[in-house]
Amino acid sequence: MKFSRVHLALVVLCVLFLVWTITSGVRPGAYTDYLAEWHEVVAGHDPWRPSDATPLNAYGPLFNALALLAWLDPIAPKVFFGSSYLAFVAWLVLRKAPDQSPRRTHAGIALCLLNPFPWVEIAHFGFFDVLVGIACAGAVHAARRGGERLSGALVGVGILVKFLPVVVLPVLASGGRRLRPNLAGSAAVVVGAGMAASFALWGPSTFDPIRFAAGRSPVMSIYDLLGSPDSPLWLGLKFDLASLEKPLIVLAEAALLAWCWWRKAGPAVSALLAVLVVLLFYRSGYNNYQMMAFCLLGYLFAAAHEEFRMTRGLLLALCAYLGTLAAIDAGYPVVRRIASTDHALLYLNGSYLLRWLAGCALVAAIMAATRAWEPGDHPSTKRGPASPPAPATSSLLLSRQRCRLRQPQPIHSSSFWRVRTSSAMRASSASRIEALILRQSASVGVRPCGRQANSASISARPNPSFCAIRMKLSRRISPRANRRWLPPDLSDVTSPRVS
Predict the structure, then answer these.
(1) Are residues 372 and 401 in the same domain?
(2) Residue 55 is assigned to a structural domain of this protein
(3) Are residues 402 and 298 in the same domain?
(4) Is the pLDDT of residue 439 over 70?
(5) What's the CA gap between 209 and 329, in Å, rounded?
(6) CA–CA separation, 61 vs 479, rounded Å?
(7) Do residue 57 and residue 199 come from a single domain?
């Protein structure tokens, strides 16, 4: 593969991303909580029943396996998150962009590496949600290629890290109006085995994260922004909006599943919509949760272009959604330094509200631009007829622009042999020219016309290359022959000479 400026830009951005991941070190916040939770695992304690000084572990059993990296070096898990994201981006840009289209390659780089969102969430703070997003994107890719068991296994791995990918399972198991029991069964086996191993190690506390996620207080979600008296955007409502969370999620996911079945939406579109809908109505609205949707967006636009149409409304909604993600991550620290605390809080709440509105607009735009998808639409699953072999010699194939033909008519043998030579020469050379013409046309894959086409049982469509071969062979035998013996349709051939 030729090394181009696009590859150079990708390499430079990946190196800068990895350097920033290492040099930013351990930032206070979520990553320090991760380290404390992994320390409990290494010490042999129950990760979900820690001491008072350790924050609550609200993640799946496979999250505890990252304690091995933290035991080697505190920065090792963060470097692993960043390296995984870079490998995912390189795979999208270099291997999955259809036909190596420069436009899609540039868009993939801009979406995945020029947006401040991954630089802040992964390289700076070290959130691990990117692993869940990559697992979901891999499951979608496997489902599109027909690997149902692999797709289900990847969904199961994502669920064991963080329980949110469970919303992807129904839409993948019923994509394209076809039920996939192998996919659902594979996911159930992986999740069941992981939960059983965790239960054997730590007991009933394995299920504590599920109970915590179902009853946690709303924070930075639409319920907190509009229903909390402490929010500057409080609407003055007298009832708890968070009580509507579970009915809204169930109804929205059921309606989405029915719509995907009716519309025959593809796996990439269905999974992205399922994640976006649950993020819109979940009671916790931290910005790092959007990493799942961000990874699926990158996969959709880089590798699943046949599942949707790029419309102007979709492009505007995508820019608005990515812009709000960048405004929260890159704009809030600046506003907090130059403005008061109340103004910074108002900016943050306004940004979260705009993100919610942009997410709704993105869901509507994707649904409007969705195309019907069949399980065989992926290029790797198509089993069409083999393409004909390439011609052995391209010099005998003259382009239509070079010949300047005006809808030529088939050239029959009776009109072709009207050459101004003696009848004896025609009689003696006819069979010899006929054999040479058929031999050379067969060697380069050229379709003859007239009597030759009927004898060979092939199409009689006129071909400029065949006419040029006839001219060449006729001049070998009759040097005096000139352009006057050609039919009127070929009288404007400018360069009949063939090498």
Answers:
(1) no
(2) yes
(3) no
(4) no
(5) 27
(6) 87
(7) yes
Residue 497 falls inside a structural domain: no
Domain housing 479: 394-490
**38 vs 43, 66, 194, 416, CA distance in Å?**
9, 7, 18, 87
What does the pLDDT read at residue 355? Answer: 92
Q: Taking residues 251-275, what's their average pLDDT?
A: 93
What does the pLDDT read at residue 159?
94
Indicate whether 316 and 415 sit together in one domain: no
pLDDT greater than 50 at residue 34 = yes
Cβ–Cβ under 8 Å, residues 177 and 261: yes
Q: Mean pLDDT, to the nearest integer, of 218-226?
A: 83
Domain count, the chain: 2
Are 411 and 318 part of one and the same domain? no
Burial code (b: 16+ CB inside 10 Å, e: under 16) for 135-150 equals: bbbbbbbbbbbebbbb
- Over residues 136-150, the pLDDT tens digits come to 999 999 999 888 999
* Average pLDDT of the chain, as a whole number: 77
Q: Can you give the pLDDT at residue 458? A: 41
What pLDDT, on the 0 to 100 scale, is given for residue 19? 94
35 part of a folded domain: yes
Rounded to whole angstroms, how far apart are CA atoms 60 and 171? 22
Same domain for 425 and 341?
no
Q: Is the pLDDT of residue 185 over 80?
A: yes
Other Cβ atoms less than 10 A from the Cβ of 68: the count is 13
Q: What amino acid is encoded at 67 in this protein?
A: A
Rounded to an integer, what distance in angstroms lies between the CA atom of residue 472 and that of residue 488?
Answer: 18
Taking the C-alpha atoms of residue 489 and residue 194, their distance in angstroms, rounded to an integer, is: 75
State the SS3 of 444-455.
Answer: HCCCCCCHHHHH
332 and 479 part of one domain: no
Question: Is residue 109 in some structural domain?
Answer: yes
